Amino acid sequence: MSRYAAIDCGTNSLRLLISQVDNGQTTELVRTMEIVRLGEGVDETGNLSAAALARTRAVLETYADLMLEYRVSDVRMVATSATRDAANKDAFFRMTAEVLGCIRPGYCAEVISGEEEAALSFRGAVADLDPAQGPFCVIDLGGGSTECIVGDHDGTIHGAHSAQMGCVRLTERILGHNPPCDEEIELAANYVEACLEEVCELVPVAKARTFVGCAGTFTTLAALALGLEEYDPKAIHNAELRFDALRLLARHLVTETTEQRAANPVIHPGRADVIAGGSIIVQGILNMAEQHAGVSSLLVSEKDILDGMIAGLSERAAMMR
């Protein structure tokens, strides 16, 4: 029996998964998320701000305490879009080494490519799905980037691409009003359309039979579509959502103010100001899936890159025995 921890440090959130692996069976012990907005302002300044680094450190220290409490034997932390883009990323690495050294001496967070990020997300997202539903197109909509990957349940990858569009990036670049004005919405939609045209050139989206949406924008939309009074991961995981209902929800979120969104109990307060950007991206994704693959619904997965990392840590430990 071994316990492993996976940490995903994105543009918007810092997420932790602690799982126990026993004879090939994985049991989730802790899954938690905090909005730290590490990527705040990076698109404009090119640097991680001191305030963003301090927020991230505070949450990471809390996660380290949890890992010690659960007696985690190994940890992997990946840093994605915001850190890849920052000129002062070394300060971030030093901080993670200081905090995580108590779990894995000498270790610090890793910056991974968009393609590796996509592959890890794919592995986690399809783990609980019927292989016969493939090929799958997994879309991990983050704060700074969106990973699109098409592959089979056995891990065979047909194509992957990291598009430079995310809910934080779109909000900071284009959506200056609260709520966004018509001109901003149109400009954002055109930007998303251009990004997705590149996706379709690089990834065989038309091969996919089942589309799977991951991360906070998709899971929040699922909670709203299901009419949940509070966020319930079990109800959301692998829920099937029809495009017509998703489009209505996404359009409505864009018309609301940040304050109106924050008042909804299933929308995390730290996501309320950027989910309009995420909703515009979702609308573009639905159009792409409909036009290129002829599908009219998608699945929403609570599992993602964290689950892919746990599987990798377990396999590495088995090989070292």
From TrEMBL:
Q: Which GO terms describe its molecular function?
A: pyrophosphatase activity
The cross-references to Pfam families, in alphabetical order and at most eight, read: Ppx-GppA
InterPro entries, per database record: ATPase_NBD, GppA/Ppx_hydrolase, Ppx_GppA_N
Which residue intervals define the domain Ppx/GppA phosphatase N-terminal in the entry?
Answer: 17-309
Identification of the protein by name: Ppx/GppA family phosphatase
Provide the species name.
Corynebacterium canis
